[in-house]
Each structure stands twice: as structure tokens, then as C-alpha cells.
Amino acid sequence: TPASTPTPTLTPTPTPWPENVNPLTGEVVDDPSLLDRVPVAIKISNYPPQYVWPQAGINSADLIFEHYNEGWFATRWTAVYLGKDPERVGPVRSGRLIDLEIPAIYKAVLACSGFSNGVLELVRNSDLYPDRVASPSVGVGEPVFYRDFSRDVPLEHTMYTSPALVRTWAAEHGVGGRQHLEGMVFSEEATVEGEPATYVYIPWHLLDAEWRYDEACGRYLRWSDGVPHTDALDGRQLSAANVVVLYVPQWDTDIIEEPHSGALSIQFALWYSNRAIIFRDGVRIDAFWQRWEREDMLTLTDEKGNPIPLKVGNTFFEVVPAGEREIEIVVKP
User: Fold this and answer.
1) For 207-257, what is each residue's pLDDT tens digit?
2) What percentage of the chain's residues is helix, strand, coil (to nearest 5)?
3) I want to staple 41 with a disulfide (CB 3.0 to 4.6 A). Which of 29, 108, 229, 279 is the partner?
4) pLDDT band with cut points at 50, 70 and 90 for residue 5
């Protein structure tokens, strides 16, 4: 595992992507106009499983970030959509401090069910507000968000939206069109040697997340708590061309996230640089992630700052704590 943090180097301006290549996946799209729009970042519940699995619209996301929720036991997801348009995404839940960072990186509009009071104050004072945050907490309700009562679950697990609904709202507020998203690098074949890695296990406190490489499709398939994790829209197992473990410093703030338990909001230092592990094509590549300015794309490099390409396709980022709460992931060849 890399032990040092690289110092920032002057890197050449990234080469602009061809107009028909999705800059978040490296995939060629049939209709380039699909990319002439703003990405949408939707906050999605992942706990408790009996109420929220299977979630809807996950396999259509270009990027997914999984991170600890307050209390350090369960996880929540932020999914970023640009190239595909699932008709329904959810269950939608409330945003966290990491969601002040992800929309800035990917020039996205954030959609979530709300915020705690302390996080809401930070959102209102951020550059995302008011035109890049859609949430009932800031007065955005129907038709951007709606309830689906087809499952017998508590009310907080019934909210849904779609990228199209969020973009319609954003367009009404003057936000739209192709965004500046240069910075990610992709290749069909791995350009950096790695160690065999067909199995990745991430022991979140109350969730066993497993990724198993399927050589037939060249992708990693997701298991959660020992069962295949599927998408409610198509019934297919969640899969990723890339699984990237990001080691990110995390700590409790003084913001009360959950008033009943007193659990505190977690801060995610998704800035500067730290260790990363890229899993693609059944191999492990040790790397570093870098993000030096707020508007910078999250990039993956070697210790000298040279970009390491991801496999063409979607990426699932596992945002694990660095430091005293670090999770000991298990990798098998």
C-alpha cells in the first residue's frame, strides 16, 4: 500500500473529450446531446435493508459513492447520473456533509430529501445554494420528489425522484447544458500492472460489502450481507467496471445529525490527497486520489502524479475512513 502522499505537480490541461464520449465513464454515447446537460447527484438510502433493498436506478448511475452514516455503523450512497436516465431513483434520503463536495467535483445538481439543521446551514452558505440543491429542506417538493407507497415501509423510505425531474427543476433555475468535466482518464485495457484481485470485502460495521469479479462480463458484482444486491428497476445484480477504495480522513463534527440518538455528523476530508486502491479487470492497482481545489475533478494517480486510467464504464467508490477508524478490507486473488 502506498505510504506517502504525493505533492501536487503542475499537470497539463486535460485533453477535452470528444463530444460523444461521457467524461464520467469514457463510454461512447449514441446521442451526444445526452451529454449537453448537467449531472444529477441523488442521495440514496442503504439502511435498514429490510426497508430499502433493492434500491431503484443504481445500475444506471455513472458513479456511486458509498460512505459511513452518522454513528459509524451503516452506509448511505450518492449516485451521479449523466449518461443514462432511469425512470425512478430511490429511496431518496437526506444529504450529508460529503454532499457539499460531490456536486462541486462533478458540477452536479444535488437531490435529497432534506438536511439536519447544522448541515442545512452549511448548504445555504455554500456555492451550491440555491440553484444546485433540490430538497424539501429548501422548499423543493413535488413534482421533483414523490412518494411511492407500493412497499409496506415507514414513510421516510418512500421518497423517489429521477434525473429528468431534477434537471427540469434545474433548467427552470437557469442551470443546464454541458458542464466542464475534464480530468478523468479511461482505457479499455489496464495500462498499469497490478496484483490479482477477484474478491474485495469491506466490513462496514453493520454491513458486509463484497465485490466478486466476473470474468465473463469483466465486471465486479456486488453482494451485501451475503446476498446478491440487485436493482429494483431491472432485477439485475449491481455491478461496476471499477471499484475504487478511497481512504479519506473522517471525524465526528459538533453537528447533531440524529436528534433521537445524539449521533453527530461525520466530516469527510475529500480534498488534497490520500491513498486509493483501484480494482479493475480482476486486478488491484495501488494509487493515490487527488483533489486540490474545490472545482477540481477527483483524479487517480501513481506516486509521481501520473494518471492511472479507470476501465471504461461505471465506478463504485468506497469511501473508507483513514486513520483510527480505518476499515481493514480483505482482498483475495
Assistant:
1) 999 999 999 999 999 999 999 999 999 999 999 999 999 999 999 999 999
2) 15, 40, 50
3) 108
4) low
Query: In terms of residue numbers, what domain contains 77?
Result: 32-172
- Both 148 and 194 in a single domain? no
**Element holding 242 (H helix, E strand):** strand 242-258
CA 150 and chain centroid, separation: 27
pLDDT-derived band at 12, boundaries 50, 70, 90: very low
Cα–Cα distance for residue pair 195/189, rounded to 1 Å:
15
Provide the b/e sequence for 161-198 (b: ≥16 CB within 10 Å). Answer: bbbebbbebbeeeebeeebebebbbbbeebebebeebb
**Identity (one letter) of the amino acid at 20?**
N
Question: Whose CA is closest to 72, among 252, 243, 202?
Answer: 252
Question: And the C-alpha cell for 182?
Answer: 475534464
Q: What cell does 93 get?
A: 434520503
CA distance 166 to 244: 27
For the chain, the domain total comes to 2
What is the dihedral sign for C-alpha 59, 310, 79, 152?
positive
Burial 300-333 (b: 16+ CB within 10 A, else e): bbeeebebbbbbbbbbbbbbbbbeeeebeeebee
Among 172, 198, 229, give the residue marking a domain's end: 172
Give domain status of residue 99, yes or no. Answer: yes
Q: Based on the domain organization, do 234 and 153 belong to the same domain?
A: no
Which amino acid, residue 158? Answer: T
> Has residue 85 been placed in a domain?
yes
DSSP codes, 12-42: PPPPPPPTTB-TTT--B-S-GGGGSS--EEE
Considering the domain architecture, whether residues 48 and 162 belong to the same structural domain is answered as yes
